């Protein structure tokens, strides 16, 4: 028998009255409140809370606070990923963020979506479309990553960009909607860092 989460993550509608999902939302919000109230200097407590909040969060990651998410359980982080202040993730669906990823202040990542039919939206029915961000990406300040988007490894998303479709690996994407303006070459990007 499928759990309510199994149905949602398989693309089914969210049942807002589900005891399982309500319990997980309340638990996530409780742990999130503790994380946001913990001093930046208390690294051990912050790491423990992140392990409890996220689906996966290595101790090498740093989550600046305030941070906002809905459940936390559907967020999976790789090694040495950094969230700057005011990152928001609506994790009705899974969010997979690779290793060595930098999220600038005010980045927003959404997996929840609704019907285009106005009558269907009256019941607040929501669906999920997972988001994937590859290793070594840099997401600029205020960028919005929309449901269902995959960003390939080593890509850079410009500040304020609204990413509505997939971005290939090694790309610089900017604007609203975000579009790729050039391909990044490893030797070129390393040279920029050195100079």
From TrEMBL:
Membrane-spanning ranges: none
Any GO molecular function: galactoside O-acetyltransferase activity
Gene3D superfamilies, sorted: Hexapeptide repeat proteins
Domain Maltose/galactoside acetyltransferase: 5-59
Annotated SMART domains: Mac
Keywords of the record: Acyltransferase, Nodulation, Repeat, Transferase
PROSITE patterns tied to this protein: HEXAPEP_TRANSFERASES (PS00101)
Domain of life: Bacteria
EC number: 2.3.1.-
One Pfam family matching this protein: Hexapep
Its biological purpose: Acetyltransferase implicated in the O-acetylation of Nod factors.
Family membership noted in the UniProt record: Belongs to the transferase hexapeptide repeat family.
Protein name, entry field: Acetyltransferase
